[in-house]
Amino acid sequence: MILVLRPDATPAQIEHILDHVKEVGFTPFPIKGEFRTIIGAVGDDTQTTPDSFQALPGVEQVLPILKPFKLASRELHKADSVVEVGTTKIGGGHLGMIAGPCAVENEEYMDEIAGRIKKAGANLLRGGAFKPRTSPYSFQGLGEEGLMLLRRIGDKHGLPVVTEVMDTRQVELVDRYADMLQIGARNMQNFELLKEVGQTRKPVLLKRGMSATVKDLLMSAEYILSGGNSNVVLCERGVRSFEESTRNMLDLASVPNIKGQSHLPVIVDPSHATGRPDLIPAMARAAVAAGADGVHVEVHCCPEKAMSDGPQALLPDQFDALMIDIRKLADMFHKTLA
Amino acid sequence: MILVLRPDATPAQIEHILDHVKEVGFTPFPIKGEFRTIIGAVGDDTQTTPDSFQALPGVEQVLPILKPFKLASRELHKADSVVEVGTTKIGGGHLGMIAGPCAVENEEYMDEIAGRIKKAGANLLRGGAFKPRTSPYSFQGLGEEGLMLLRRIGDKHGLPVVTEVMDTRQVELVDRYADMLQIGARNMQNFELLKEVGQTRKPVLLKRGMSATVKDLLMSAEYILSGGNSNVVLCERGVRSFEESTRNMLDLASVPNIKGQSHLPVIVDPSHATGRPDLIPAMARAAVAAGADGVHVEVHCCPEKAMSDGPQALLPDQFDALMIDIRKLADMFHKTLA
Amino acid sequence: MILVLRPDATPAQIEHILDHVKEVGFTPFPIKGEFRTIIGAVGDDTQTTPDSFQALPGVEQVLPILKPFKLASRELHKADSVVEVGTTKIGGGHLGMIAGPCAVENEEYMDEIAGRIKKAGANLLRGGAFKPRTSPYSFQGLGEEGLMLLRRIGDKHGLPVVTEVMDTRQVELVDRYADMLQIGARNMQNFELLKEVGQTRKPVLLKRGMSATVKDLLMSAEYILSGGNSNVVLCERGVRSFEESTRNMLDLASVPNIKGQSHLPVIVDPSHATGRPDLIPAMARAAVAAGADGVHVEVHCCPEKAMSDGPQALLPDQFDALMIDIRKLADMFHKTLA
Amino acid sequence: MILVLRPDATPAQIEHILDHVKEVGFTPFPIKGEFRTIIGAVGDDTQTTPDSFQALPGVEQVLPILKPFKLASRELHKADSVVEVGTTKIGGGHLGMIAGPCAVENEEYMDEIAGRIKKAGANLLRGGAFKPRTSPYSFQGLGEEGLMLLRRIGDKHGLPVVTEVMDTRQVELVDRYADMLQIGARNMQNFELLKEVGQTRKPVLLKRGMSATVKDLLMSAEYILSGGNSNVVLCERGVRSFEESTRNMLDLASVPNIKGQSHLPVIVDPSHATGRPDLIPAMARAAVAAGADGVHVEVHCCPEKAMSDGPQALLPDQFDALMIDIRKLADMFHKTLA
Q: In chain B, what percentage of residues exceed pLDDT 70?
């Protein structure tokens, strides 16, 4: 950690700061500049927060040096992680193509959609049984009935299934039916929920929060990893911005950014990122070209009848066309889609 | 709702759209302009989402008209709500001055801080027993022991207490000890938690999420209100922005903005908003001048020894000085501080 | 335009609003809903601003319908525009690969860089002679000497050249030396400068401002087009965001977003967007996969000696490797790189 | 400056870095930690950009220590600056109350508005003769005719006048008529324009750009100050954000934030910040309570007939009411309004 002192810090304050640095187990290295003193504090940054230093009289700024995550970091785990979800692999050269409707609605739709996406080449089926809706008056999902339906349809078409868990009390139930647990963007910093899925051994799809930095996302992954569950896949799905013509702003640079500092697989969700079917295929292609380990796309056979987020879904025919491009890009970048 | 059609919408598409509008219970009023047709759809917007219209072929844009919240709205509840927290009132001319440390740490600190803030004029004591921390390696709070301590100190000094609840499974426990339940910014859209506190009758302090719009905040309040709990106080605490010199960006305009459309009390938290003690007093004064129903300030007797967020706390002496200004402003704007 | 009236709008106010709508040449179509009245105002939205309606007593909200740009719009100009810069074409299936140093520094560097990028396949040389620098104490560019040098090196290697113009008084000078005029992000809404380059017939590379929406960017293009200069190429280069690990946030979805509503070519600048050479190649590949008409990359033979923005430049060897991928992607998406 | 090296930096790289630090005139102080080395580089940060260090192989991060502005800084100029605009003073306990229409439109309106604001207590008249408009089809201002009218009306009512200058070529003309030159938000980083007004001795009202940090704003002030013009007043007017119900997000914390590090006066413009007359009075009061040296409010006698930004203007009666509160707050905070 680096402590930048105020230009007017007194010798007594500096003495007190040096004492405090030693007291918490760091070794201080003061450097006296023309205008101000800085102090290098060498020790284990992950055990102490910068906060205790920031509050010391005479300290202007505290600059942390070490990355605050460990298990998610590539420094200790050089090779790409591969996460297995049923028969599907994500990461380390394996592309996860996750598709399906926003919400599980009924058997007829699920069956048709699953059949179509399987044929087009998707290797994971998604569908929400518990839906986080901004309004309490919107459709909230079918609950356990939806989970059973999703499981049945996944088995019928040979597709592992992923679905969202919104509350600590639902983890056991969802764990029973799903092959992968999704933590939604709004729950990325629901730390009790992260701890709870960290106690399972199910693969977790962790979506980036709408105002989360890349570092925040990796810290949330660290919560799950430190619980003992190493099967974490990260998902970039856009952040809040001032641009009003898309639902969120897809931060595609986060893909190489994360992969440079973490071994965890990263996939991209252009459906929630843009909210616009006319932009989804281009962003899905861009995701693979940027090095993503997979793509998450909403597909619905009848968007205007969908009970949740219909307009951001691709039609099965559009998904077919997209998968042709995705396969070409996978070949070009030596990725397997199994 | 207003449907704006694409310039190239075909007569068949328009026919299909008009049918769909009627089918979901709305009355359509088409207006044919030079370049495109728009359709006014009159009916109850709160029951249908714009999504089903957006997905119709030929529709370019759907513009909702009615506000999507009802119970939180001033349209149906003209007068300011007053929320009673123990002996303290917030809203309708009553200022809530909430102060205390970030986390409940030990009896000695709590007792000293509570004594000082009470004497300075605060009327609610805060302190976290369950702490949402970005890192799994940071101090996570004292749990039930912290709740008991907070209760004891609050009673000793005659201050009602508010503390955060982070998980649905904690609601019953926290409800037993606290006079007011705080929903933190990271949980503003943890809808299961909102529903759960909506089932209690305890006052709820609902903090704005870091990427939440004013409308999002009011929709989250609606979750609690629609559960039957009408004791909701909103809290502006800053949002994420590109400005790097403050922790968040305090959106003080949200105070008159919310008060114009909702009857719920709104308070301001300049501690989390700025993260800088040198800015907190100015922002607390500004909050009262902007019409806020209260202020939420972290106070600690020894910030450098605090286990959580020490540097953003005011010292008791600084809080004393602030309260002198707050009282003057309260007088000037005819607010009571009881 | 749609006027949404307040729930408490009086009959007299409504009468006054209807009169005003007619007075400014629109035809009003009132629709009376259960809670409030809305008025469709049919006419030419591009001639009247919503402002005059917004100020009318009784009006709550004004929703514009028509897009406020015309010449930039695909509605009136269906086919993709192709902009010719010297012998290079951008748009309509032609990829513009713009490369070079941030600033023109000296003959030796320029010659080496130009030789290398030409060999790798770039078809436009960039380099700044007038530099917009945040600090008045930073290197401000070589001025006319830099322009002459850029011109000479471009001619030697058979590469048309693009360089920034920062001030209306520089337009004539820069126009004399350059094949394409660049308007930087900080000047995207320097309207006098836009008008001035609109008076030339030189191709203009218009960069998106750091807080500009896609619509703002198209409106700025409209300034140039309405001056009579139809040779405009747009450039996505990232916007300001809360993410601190990259210089800006690259909004790659703006590429298909713009191309859906405008005929103008769009290129992407991953150098300024990310500020990190480790992310630039991935974002350049993603740009082409997203449908961009070109890429703008900084290349420097000796970044640590560069006088401006050295660290965001690729080394010539890195650019060689990138161009191999770009060629493959160009083939895959049927783009020509001439 | 602090250089944080990569964990895998080689001894040869470290040697090269130390050499480079010395070569550019800094003294290096290496500190070897368990995982990585950091190097304190002591010297004059304002002369060298972090860029040249960032590009060195083995460097992960460069952390600047000294503030990059000097003349704007309180470190070298402890006392508050007072800027005199005609007979009006801003800063150092003097409140500048700037009011008037968005654009100068005609004699009748200007005269009525000026009379009313003067009577209410404003001490500076504003009005635009050159208008930066997003659309080329919107009213662009009356030009010199507007300047003459503004001057005449200001003189008649004994009010100094401030008006915007948008282009280097207009500086001389505007300087001839106005008492204070306004640099608009869109031109905050139009560096040629900043240099040009830095050559005059007229007071400059420098508005914060929509995506500018506080540091960026102070750097732009430094451009003017370093030209020899020390009469700079800063203006907070909101930044771009995701909140859609206000035009911009007013960052009121910037007021104490700037005043802590700079001696320059800071005023607040709630009209452009919110775009909503129902929020302007609350934000104007909050500004004074936050310590601002003045407020900038649009006032129009007939907003629905205004040719530019009508709906964000207060009516004269609303301004009267606001001024009563402002006077009380000025008294309370010991500010003079002359």
A: 97
CA separation, residue C146 to residues C97, C103, C130, C163, D313 (Å): 21, 9, 8, 10, 47
Q: How far apart are the C-alpha atoms of B311 and C220, rounded to whole Å?
A: 44
How much is the pLDDT for B46? 61
Q: Do A36 and D75 touch (CB under 8 A)?
A: no
**Separation of alpha carbons C271 and C284, rounded Å:** 9
Q: Which strands make up the sheet holding C2-5, listed edge to edge? A: C27-32, C37-42, C2-5, C59-63
Buried b (16+ CB within 10 A) or exposed e, B190-199: bbbbbbbbbe
CA atoms within 13 A on the CB side of A249: 30
**Which of C29, C33, C44 is opposite residue B42, by nearest beta carbon?**
C33
Other Cβ atoms closer than 10 A to B9 = 20
Please name the residue that has the structure tokens 């001030």. C167
DSSP string, A319-333: HHHHHHHHHHHHHHT
Contact D191 C304 (CB under 8 A): no
Chain D residue with CA closest to B290: the answer is D282
Higher pLDDT, C310 or A19: A19
Chains touching C by CB (3 or more pairs below 8 Å)? A, B, D
Q: Which of D170, D180, D175, D238 is nearest to D209 (CA)?
A: D238
What token pair was written down for B174?
A: 């926290």
Whether chain B has a CB inside 8 Å of the CB on D217: the answer is no
Q: What angle do CA D150, D155, D161 make, to 5 degrees?
A: 50
Pairwise CA distance, residues D207 & D212, whole Å: 10
The sheet carrying D37-42 orders its strands as D27-32, D37-42, D2-5, D59-63
User: Of B55, B69, B186, which has the smallest distance from its Cβ to A311's Cβ?
Assistant: B55
Residue B79 identity: A
Q: What is the pLDDT of residues B134-169, one digit of tens each?
A: 888 888 899 999 999 999 999 999 999 999 999 999
Tell me what percent of the residues of chain A surpass a pLDDT of 90: 74
Half-sphere exposure of D7 (CA within 13 A, CB side): 10
Q: What value of ipTM does the predicted structure carry?
A: 0.92
pTM for this entry: 0.94
| Closest CB from C241, C279, C288 relative to A257 | C279
Rg value, chain D, Cα:
23
CA distance D101 to D120: 15
A243 to C213: CB separation less than 8 angstroms, yes or no: yes
DSSP codes joined into one string, B7-73: TT--HHHHHHHHHHHHHTT-EEEEEE-SS-EEEEEES-TTTS-THHHHTSTTEEEEE--S-S-STTB
* Nearest-neighbour CA in chain B from A20: distance (Å): 9
Contacts of residue D289 in chain B, CB cutoff 8 Å? 282, 285-286, 288-290, 329
pLDDT string in tens for chain A (338-residue length): 888 888 888 999 999 999 988 988 888 988 887 777 889 888 776 666 677 788 888 888 888 776 778 899 998 899 999 999 999 999 999 999 999 999 999 999 999 999 999 999 999 999 999 988 888 888 889 999 999 999 999 999 999 999 999 999 999 999 999 999 999 999 999 999 999 999 999 999 999 999 999 999 999 999 999 999 999 999 999 999 999 999 999 999 999 999 999 999 999 999 999 999 999 999 999 999 999 999 999 999 887 777 776 678 999 999 999 999 999 999 999 999 97
**Residue A22 CA to chain centroid, in angstroms?**
38
Q: Which of D246, D256, D290 sits opposite B253 (nearest CB)?
A: D246
- Cα angle C294, C295, C296; round to 5: 130
Say yes or no for a CB contact (<8 Å) between C65 and B4: yes
Token code pair at residue A145: 């009935």
Q: Would you say A157 and A115 are in contact if contact means Cβ atoms under 8 Å apart?
A: yes
Please tell me the distance from the alpha carbon of residue B198 to that of residue A184, in angstroms, as a whole number.
22
